[in-house]
Amino acid sequence: MKDILSQIIEHKKTEVQTQKQAIGLEQLREQVKEQLKTDNTPRRSMKQALAQSATGIIAEFKRRSPSKGWINRQAQADLIPPGYEASGASALSILTDETFFGGTLDDIRTARPLTRLPILRKDFIIDEYQLLQARLAGADAVLLIAACLTCEECATLTEQAHALGLEVLLELHSESELAYLSTVAADMVGINNRNLGSFVTDVANSFRMADRLRQQTSALLVSESGISSMETIQRLRAAGYRGFLLGEVFMKHSSPAEALKQFLQSEIQPRV
């Protein structure tokens, strides 16, 4: 049986090719050129927002996952992302994979004018085409997953993203992927605590890799998935992380924004 990641990537290759048949790569490039000429709005720096934040919360908007099925099927992109901002998020992550996560690029288009926070397009990016889509939709940063790409592919996509004014969050899962750091000029490096084969989470993965990361990169460090308490965030911050991506812990509630607010209020007060 194939692992989940392999299934997603196989489907993603077909999906991108289908999209290219509807709107060609050159046509999309031209659309971005026109946007760059007329849109003087600066991209919002996710790296800077996290570095300057006291909490570093990247609040995620997602409706479902391969491991849990539907989490919040009726979630609305015009309500939850601005609600996250009001509740204290530092940045937003919006899933745009439809088949496995129930999201679309329309979710970014909907949220963009309603929030000042930087938006990460979270998807399984394997092609320049998806970077162009992200720029047109209003994203400020994109996720590149080492497990989906060769080191060379990742470096090329990072250069292309930067040329479009997009920041890059490079996602690693194990020490075997640390070699990417010497080639890929990512703005942020994330450690996914979720095994992309089985989708089981273990936050200890971030702690295991913290020392090696600090030695090998000056990029801002992000811990992704499996975080369920402010105590864990405080421990991760002490280990060198400045961004903390949480999704399901909020999205499973009827009001994700209120869940975020309550989460932040649970912060352990320092002893005097």
Total of helices: 12
Shape: globular
Report the uncertain regions.
none
- Biggest sheet features: 8 strands, parallel, barrel
**Structural domains: how many:** 1
**Within the largest sheet, what's the order of strands?**
1-4-5-6-7-8-9-10
Q: In CATH terms, what is the fold-level topology?
A: TIM Barrel
| Extended strand count | 10
Class from secondary-structure proportions = alpha/beta
End-to-end Cα distance, whole Å, is 54 Å
User: What value does the average pLDDT take?
Assistant: 93
Q: Radius of gyration in whole Å, from Cα?
A: 18 Å
The ordered H/E elements are HHHEEEHEHHEHEHEEHEHEHH
CATH superfamily: Aldolase class I
The CATH C-level name is: Alpha Beta
The percentage of residues in β strands lies in 15-25%
The helical percent reads: 40-55%
What would you say the CATH architecture is? Alpha-Beta Barrel
Chain-wise SSE layout:
Layout: H1 4-22, H2 25-38, H3 46-52, E1 57-61, E2 64-65, E3 69-70, H4 80-87, E4 91-95, H5 98-101, H6 105-111, E5 119-122, H7 128-137, E6 141-145, H8 151-163, E7 167-172, E8 188-192, H9 204-216, E9 220-224, H10 230-238, E10 243-246, H11 248-251, H12 256-265
Parallel strand pairs: 1-4, 1-10, 4-5, 5-6, 6-7, 7-8, 8-9, 9-10
Antiparallel strand pairs: 2-3
Helix pairs in contact: 2-7, 4-12
Notes on the structure:
It is a single chain. With 272 residues, the protein is α/β, with parallel strands linked by helices. The protein has a single domain (4-265), classed as TIM Barrel. It has twelve helices and ten strands. It has helices at residues 4-22, 25-38, 46-52, 80-87, 98-101, 105-111, 128-137, 151-163, 204-216, 230-238, 248-251, 256-265, and strands at residues 57-61, 64-65, 69-70, 91-95, 119-122, 141-145, 167-172, 188-192, 220-224, 243-246. The strands form two sheets. It has an eight-stranded parallel beta barrel with strand order 1-4-5-6-7-8-9-10, surrounded by six helices. A two-stranded antiparallel sheet has the order 2-3. Strand 9 (220-224), helix 10 and strand 10 form a beta-alpha-beta unit. 43% of the residues are buried.
